[in-house]
Amino acid sequence: PPGNISDCPNGSRWVMDVFNECAQDSRDVASIVLGLVSIFCFAAASFPQFYQACKTGIMDRALSIYFLLGWLGGDLLNLIGSFLADQLPLQIYTAVYYVLADLVMLSLYCYYKVKNRSGGIVTPINVAFVFLSLGMVSAVSFLGRGAAVAQDPVTFKGRSLLSARVDELGPSPGTGSFASGSISSVLYLCSRVPQIYTNYKRKSTIGVSYSLFALVMLGNSLYGLSV
């Protein structure tokens, strides 16, 4: 049952109760705390760019569409990998949130792209943007909630990619999630190149939030320490 630490000798009870993960010493607890802080950094990273977009109104010129698509592709594959690896609800909800944040940012890009070319036809664009945003948020949230509910809450899973049994015959159940995670990493890395080129071509970073990249760098650093 939840809270049973028989599979995790000397494990932290609150970590098992809240995250269903095994933390047997202070090093494990520190890893989990650093991982949670890194998630917070990633989750908060998009908000400064949202503000910057609304403030300057030139998001379509400041950011590269390939940079946004690369992030969205990486987060979508991360979400797919969390389904394939049968990860914990917290991990699935986090992956869903990342996809939602990417969709909002991509929607803002398209919004200002159309608005800056529309010649003043603003109201229909605003209405369409609101309806499309609500539709995307509802659809992705529904998918994430359904996947998390389908989880077996009474079984200790941990991170499936790290807990696959070595004596299982045939392909590992984590093969698909590993492949999606690898492609996701490539997309994350390559997505920076178009943005660097855009900044170089414009000879300016106006409209690009410094805090976006600062929080992502901090999140990656904390995640590395957590690992």
TrEMBL record:
<keyword id="KW-0472">Membrane</keyword>
<feature type="transmembrane region" description="Helical">
    <location>
        <begin position="90"/>
        <end position="112"/>
    </location>
</feature>
<dbReference type="Pfam" id="PF04193">
    <property type="entry name" value="PQ-loop"/>
</dbReference>
<feature type="transmembrane region" description="Helical">
    <location>
        <begin position="63"/>
        <end position="84"/>
    </location>
</feature>
<keyword id="KW-1133">Transmembrane helix</keyword>
<feature type="transmembrane region" description="Helical">
    <location>
        <begin position="175"/>
        <end position="193"/>
    </location>
</feature>
<dbReference type="InterPro" id="IPR036259">
    <property type="entry name" value="MFS_trans_sf"/>
</dbReference>
<dbReference type="InterPro" id="IPR051415">
    <property type="entry name" value="LAAT-1"/>
</dbReference>
<comment type="similarity">
    <text>Belongs to the laat-1 family.</text>
</comment>
<feature type="transmembrane region" description="Helical">
    <location>
        <begin position="205"/>
        <end position="225"/>
    </location>
</feature>
<feature type="transmembrane region" description="Helical">
    <location>
        <begin position="29"/>
        <end position="51"/>
    </location>
</feature>
<protein>
    <submittedName>
        <fullName>Lysosomal amino acid transporter 1</fullName>
    </submittedName>
</protein>
<feature type="transmembrane region" description="Helical">
    <location>
        <begin position="124"/>
        <end position="144"/>
    </location>
</feature>
<dbReference type="GO" id="GO:0005765">
    <property type="term" value="C:lysosomal membrane"/>
</dbReference>
<keyword id="KW-0812">Transmembrane</keyword>
<dbReference type="InterPro" id="IPR006603">
    <property type="entry name" value="PQ-loop_rpt"/>
</dbReference>
<dbReference type="GO" id="GO:0015189">
    <property type="term" value="F:L-lysine transmembrane transporter activity"/>
</dbReference>
